[in-house]
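pls design
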């Protein structure tokens, strides 16, 4: 997805997705993964993927 090592770019991408979801009346907002889940939640995600946060990094 459109995430970046720069927090402000990731935040802006999530903010744009959230605005589009609002404009189209979508209730579920699925963006963000373990590495950026706090930003995703702050920007309106209702569903995040937590693989490495729960299972650890892949070998």
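designed seq:
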């Amino acid at each position: 997805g459109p995430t970046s090592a720069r927090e402000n770019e990731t935040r802006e991408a999530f903010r744009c997705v959230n605005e589009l979801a609002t404009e189209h009346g979508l209730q579920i907002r699925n963006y963000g993964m373990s590495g950026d889940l706090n930003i995703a939640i702050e920007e309106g995600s209702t569903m995040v993927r937590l693989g490495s946060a729960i299972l650890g990094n892949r070998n």
